[in-house]
Design goal:
Layout lengths: L1 E5 L2 E7 L8 E5 L6 H9 L20 H5 L2 E4 L12 H11 L4 H14 L15 H14 L4 E5 L7 H16 L3 E5 L3 H7 L2 E6 L2 E7 H8 L2 E10 L9 E7 L2 E7 L5 H9 L2 E10 L2 H8 L10
Parallel strand pairs: 3-6, 3-7, 4-5, 5-6
Antiparallel strand pairs: 1-2, 7-8, 9-11, 9-12, 10-11
Length: about 300
């Protein structure tokens, strides 16, 4: 169990989890929930007030130099590049610092800079770059190293859809190599696309930790079916339907998928009617998280 506080204001408390090697975990929660603090504890930048943190089977605070050689991190509030150096100058310093093979480094840099579209920026200084350009170069630096653990805090800030797609692809490459990846994000597209498991923090406490499927089942079970039909609608009052709207030959049904499935609904309707079209929609996980935080109403989830 881990506890961390800033001047008696508890930021994290009662956190007790294990993240297996080779798993990608998406860390979500409202602003101030403790996402960045959690990642800094894992990386050894912060020390817990109570409890223990083991990163790669070592205490990250007591073994900073050993851990630093095995992890690669990107935090949204910690500058990566110095303004007086070009991107390439800084990358060369990192290569030398970590003893990276020059040929392998240059080959990897060519691939990553092409994927993230910052090849033409290598001889530019960070202060001359836009937010999106700087973020692509920062991601490139983080992904260049062959680490055992990658930590990303809000990695897609400033990226357009092409930039996001490139980042997702590079993360997929790392996952195929069995790397462990931790990603915090307010963007549920990031989490849905790359995470194997989700860690949900709520006011510093662990609200959920498990697979995306388990999270959907636990917190986003609502589905809505739009059915266009010909014929008569049978009695479905015995099914656990939360909302039922019939307009001419169009039926809208909202239900908890843990209690009744879209298949059950359709099978019942098909007994007496010919179904012309069906659309099944699930509440977006991001909106469901916002609902838990009181940011949206249940009626706005679809």
């Amino acid at each position: 169990m881990v506890i961390f506080d800033y001047v008696n204001k508890f930021v994290l408390h009662d956190i007790d989890i294990h993240i297996p090697r080779g798993v990608t975990v998406g860390i979500i929660g409202a602003s101030g929930a403790g996402k960045t603090t959690f990642l800094k504890l894992v990386s050894g930048l912060l020390k817990p007030e109570l409890g223990r943190v083991h990163t790669l089977r070592q205490n990250p605070v007591d073994n900073k130099s050993k851990i630093a050689k095995r992890i690669s991190v990107l935090f949204s509030d910690i500058p990566v590049y110095e303004d007086n150096l070009t991107i390439m100058d800084h990358l060369d310093e990192i290569r030398i610092m970590y003893g990276m093979n020059k040929v392998e480094f240059e080959t990897c840099l060519m691939k990553i800079s092409h994927e993230l579209n910052f090849s033409e920026l290598l001889h530019s200084k960070p202060k001359s770059l836009s937010l999106g350009q700087k973020r692509r170069a920062e991601l490139g630096l983080t992904l260049l190293r062959d680490a055992d653990l990658y930590i990303f805090d809000e990695p897609c800030i400033g990226l357009d859809q092409n930039g996001k797609a490139a980042f997702y692809k590079l993360i997929d490459d790392k996952k195929k190599k069995g790397k462990t990846i931790l990603v915090s994000s307010h963007d549920m597209e990031d989490i849905s696309r790359i995470a194997d498991r989700v860690l949900l923090l709520d006011k510093g406490a662990l609200a959920f930790y498990g697979s995306k499927e388990e999270l959907y089942k636990s917190m986003a079970p609502m589905e809505e079916s739009y059915i266009e039909f010909e014929g008569t609608i049978p009695d479905i009052s015995d099914l656990e339907i939360e909302r039922y709207i019939l307009e001419n030959d169009k039926l809208t049904i909202q239900y908890n998928s843990n209690h009744v499935s879209s298949k059950e609904v359709l099978e019942r309707i098909c007994l007496h009617s010919r179904v012309k079209s069906v659309i099944v929609r699930r509440a977006k996980l991001g909106d469901t998280i916002k609902q838990l935080n009181g940011e949206v109403k249940k009626s706005e989830l679809y």
